[in-house]
Amino acid sequence: MSPKIEEFTNIVDVSYAQDGTSVNTDAMGMREMQRRVFEQRARQYLLVKAPPASGKSRALMFVGLDKLYNQGRKKVIVAVPERSIGASFAPTKLTEHGFFADWEVPDKNNLCTPGSSQSKVNAFVDFLQSSDPVLICTHATLRFAFEKLAPEAFNGTVLAIDEFHHVSADLEASRLGTLLHDIMAGSDAHIVAMTGSYFRGDSVPVLSPADEAKFTPVTFNYYDQLNGYRFLKALGIGHHFYQGRYTEAINEVLDLDKKTIIHIPNVNSGESTKDKLEEVGFLLDAIGVVERTDPNTGIIEVRRRDNGQILRVADLVDDTDQKARAETLHYLSTVASQERDGVDIIIALGMAKEGFDWPFAEHALTVGYRASLTEIIQIIGRVTRDCEGKPRAQFTNLIAEPDASQAEVTVTVNNMLKAITASLLMEQVLAQNFEFKTKRSDDDENEPGKLRIRGFKEPSTDRVRQIVTADLNDLKANILQDDMFVRAAAGSLDAETTNKVLIPKIIRDRYPDLTETEVEEVRQHVVVDSVIKNGEVREVGDKRFVRMGEKFVNIDDIHINLIDSVNPFQRAFEVLSKSVTPNVLRLISDSIAATRIQITPDEALALFPKIQLWSKTHGGKRPDRRSEDATERKYAEALLVLQKLKRERQQAVAQQKAKEE
């Protein structure tokens, strides 16, 4: 089959005001997000949720120094997931910009350098017994050191954990989660947790509800960040679906005039050729002709086939020579991060995601499904840094179009749904937040950024206010990843069931400490926010109308009962409809339908002769489950059951054959 890529429309395509507010600094050298965090500097447990490039590292410096100088704390420990991210917390002259102290880290206290884990653990323990105030280490060093220490050893410290989504409330599986829980229970340590993506890729929460309730969240979302940039004005997020091999189709989406990060598929995925080094070779050939490799940096110079221009390519996939890779990473973090012409294309597999800083990057081209919301948002964050000469950024997910003849088509479809779900969530994260209030009389007018709704229940407790102001997108991520969401998105659940049964159940599971009154307040906020953000707004004269379901409603006349009559997830199915081909959409729809068909395998087998006769009578036509004829619909559903049964038997035979071999 020749390679083919379907035309597509961006799921997300937004423009922003470029008002500069998120990057302008005040008299102390703080950006808007950093000011918000500093206002909460006295809190013992602080959770900072903000996008990449918003300045979380420096926000920690401001708070950490205040805790050292003004709050009686003796030490600040910063833990990062990998060594390269430690550079974000390097010594910084904050006094030059108006702050009262500088961030200083002696070389011996930077444990994000080469060396054995044992030597770093010893250095960590020595630091706690010294008079030095600041230490930088990896999550791994923190975990190994904690095995030699009691929780009370952290008394008097500030423990800052970067990329906090690596923590898990599953204490059996996450040693970092266990460590955090024990330190909170057994010491007076202050904790600053920072993340650009608080929701994990799995269903396990980051914190237990009891521990999470102790944190004061500060949220700075993508809308806050991008709307306040000076240069970057537009962001697009979309999917391409290809047939054949991606190495033969990637040229159709690879724009060689854009600074691009290409993430090739995981070697265990269906899109992978299973030879990652050969894939890099294919990509280099797609770009042009390799001229030379710089022996000092590892940068590959490739002459473009179309215009003869030399492009500088960094290969972060080849890990056979660790020294060469280290040299390339050093070059990228120094020269290439400062000079626009330092590199043009970066090819990576597991690297160049969280914490990777290349401000000139314009296009993130990711091959293969990314079921983790966290991973997708981290990759998008690589291209959303503000940079002069970069008015637009683009994230493209290049996905193999599923083949109905494949035995694993259901898995493929489910992966696609997760990828689309992540994009849908990003669309909501990128939109302006509204403040919702109860409309008590006709005199209550709507104001910019504020919407009054009749019958709406405003938060009655601090816990609900905390959830709806700082945790709403994370809660939506839980809902969008829930198994029942697939059915809701396809319209198999009516609006009332979705809004009154599905959403409250997920809220109770995530926040078991809430009362039923609080659950209802959170539920209303989730539904209202989803429906309003997904609704098209039109202005007619001096009135504004928002599209809810199939009709436009005067914003001044909105009532909570009217909003509850709309399925807030219907937008997800619309996203699928405009983003995939009819054939793929049919596969997705059939896969969803198969989860709720009540026909047993025995009944389906018994119906098969009748189905064959029906098909012969209708000129070889296959029965359609969307038909208005009840018999045809039943035959079509029976066929779906038989197809599922056939795939399961094929898989069982293949597994048995593999065991015998």
Descriptive notes:
The chain has 661 residues and is α/β, with parallel strands linked by helices. Helices cover 40% and strands 16% of the residues. The strands form four sheets. Strands 1, 2, 9, 10, 11, 12, 13, 14, 15 and 16 form a ten-stranded mixed beta sheet that branches. It has a six-stranded parallel beta sheet with strand order 5-4-6-7-3-8, sandwiched between helices. Strands 19-20-21 form a three-stranded antiparallel beta sheet, with helices on one face. The longest helix has 31 residues, at 630-660. The radius of gyration is 27 Å and the shape is globular.
Rg, nearest Å: 27 Å
- Uncertain stretches: 169-173
* C-alpha end-to-end distance: 31 Å
CATH fold-type name of the largest domain? Rossmann fold
CATH class of the largest domain: Alpha Beta
Proportion in helices: 25-40%
Number of strands: 21
Brief account:
With 661 residues, the chain is α/β, with parallel strands linked by helices. The chain folds into four domains: 4-15 and 226-401, Rossmann fold (3-Layer(aba) Sandwich); 32-219, Rossmann fold, CATH 3.40.50; 435-575, no CATH class; 598-660.
